[in-house]
Design a protein that fits this description.
The protein is an alpha/beta fold and 427 residues long. It has two domains: 3-169, Glutaconate Coenzyme A-transferase (3-Layer(aba) Sandwich); 184-424, Acetyl-CoA hydrolase/transferase C-terminal domain (Glutaconate Coenzyme A-transferase), CATH 3.40.1080. Helix content is 25%, strand content 20%.
Length: 427
């Protein structure tokens, strides 16, 4: 049927989950938005999403029609939420499916972006198993756009066409996320992390310049595994060259595992009907007790700022929520449970405007995503320090050593004022 016919299944007051990653079902979203004048109080749930435009429902005329409640502030809704029209619910990404399954976030309708059906009538929602799997499992109605650009991925994101209440044939290319080229600082950070990663390690690696710098520095490693949240273009050379062969993993050996993908058409083409790439429910991929079964888990994440005691803020700039918790905590904890596991918190020492990211205390209003009880390695372009087993004064000394040189004197004074002689005697 047409998209306009399909979205008639959505009623005022419904809770609607919109699939994320690079597979937001834009045709269905546009059709739903066109009904905004007749709908009221439709609650929209979403997670991590990447689009090339702001969501069409983020307009003043729809402020009472569509109420945003997301667990990750993505680029398509960031301005709308910052202006106070939408809201975000804090939750570890691996625990969001629990909100669906326990009915805390009811799902009346799910909007999916799916592949063409296979010979048995199954379609895949390809690049986004993450929250889509649990939301679809709990949904009363399933509306899907059937899209030849969506790869057919193996694992959890598969549904038989007979389980779909309304289907719309579309021709929508997926959003492509360019692979950023690491700059000089990011390259230094990548090398510092890579030299601490042993052969046979299982990687969780994020998105951006620093992760790509780490990947570039891993070309000479052997028998690496991949159990991560996001599959990106960055890992393709390591898979192609056999550096990632998943041979020493305990959980799904021989398979690269993720819950979502975002990259170029080259990644999407490689995923299509590829039995060596498995996509799973985020409640499974991000379960620290599953992650920790693999040996030598290396969790590599980024952040916005860190204080002298190791408290990590990764989701907000002061009081403004900029992104979300994502799976950082899940993999930091999972790495701590892994034999030989390590976690790395990586960032340049300053912002693009030259402001220091290592602070004596976090910016007022900043949220703590990774607590100081969990922080392991911290890496900037000025070096890498291991905070495990270190007292608060010792941590302050180490953090100052990798801070922006222009900030170190002020940080040193702040540390002395805070910790007194216990800090001074470390000199």
């Amino acid at each position: 049927m047409s998209a306009d016919e399909a979205v008639k299944l959505i009623k005022s007051g419904d809770h609607v989950y919109i699939q994320g990653s690079t597979s937001v079902p834009e045709t269905l979203v546009a059709a739903m938005t066109r009904r905004g004048h007749e709908l009221r109080g439709v609650v929209l749930h979403s997670g991590f999403s990447v689009t090339d435009r702001e969501a069409p429902y983020c307009r003043p005329e729809y402020k009472d029609s569509f109420l945003i409640d997301t667990c990750f502030v993505s680029n398509n809704v960031r301005r709308w939420i910052a202006e106070g029209y939408g809201a975000t619910t804090p939750k570890f990404l691996g625990e969001v499916p629990q909100l669906f399954r326990e009915g805390i976030w009811p799902v009346d309708v799910v909007l999916l972006n799916c592949s063409m059906p296979d010979k048995d009538g199954y379609v895949s929602y390809g690049v986004s198993a993450d929250l889509a799997f649990s939301a679809t499992e709990c949904a009363k109605k399933v509306i899907a756009q059937i899209n030849p650009y969506m790869p057919f991925s193996y694992g959890d994101p598969v549904i038989h066409i007979s389980k779909i209440d309304a289907a719309v044939l579309v021709d929508d290319p997926l959003v492509e996320v360019p692979t950023p080229t690491p700059n000089e600082k990011e390259t230094a950070i990548g090398r510092a992390i890579a030299e601490r990663i042993p052969d046979g390690a299982t990687l969780q690696i994020g998105v951006g310049g620093i992760p790509n710098a780490v990947i570039s520095a891993l070309r000479d490693h052997k028998h690496l595994g991949l159990h991560t949240e996001a599959m990106t273009d960055g890992v393709l050379p390591l898979i192609r060259d056999g550096v990632i062969d998943n041979s020493e993993k305990v959980v799904m050996p021989g398979k690269s595992v993720a819950c979502l993908a975002l990259g170029s058409k080259h990644l999407y083409e490689l995923m299509d009907y590829n039995p060596d790439m498995i996509f799973k429910d985020v409640a499974w991929t991000n379960d620290p007790f599953i992650i920790g079964q693999n040996p030598r888990v290396m969790a590599i994440n980024s952040c916005l700022e860190i204080d002298l005691t190791g408290q990590v803020c990764a989701d907000s700039i002061g009081t403004r929520i900029f992104s979300g918790i994502g799976g950082q905590h899940d993999f930091v904890y999972g790495a701590s449970r892994s034999e030989g596991g390590l976690s790395f918190m990586a960032m340049t020492s300053t912002t693009n405007k030259g402001m220091g990211k290592i602070k004596d205390v976090l910016t007022p209003g900043a949220g703590v995503v990774t607590t100081r009880f969990q922080t392991n390695w911290v890496v900037t372009e000025h070096g890498a320090v291991d905070l495990r087993g270190k007292s608060l004064p010792e941590r302050a000394r180490l953090m100052i050593s990798i801070a922006n040189p222009a900030d170190r004197e002020a940080l040193d004074r702040a540390a002395f004022e805070r910790f007194g002689y216990s800090y001074l005697r470390l000199k």
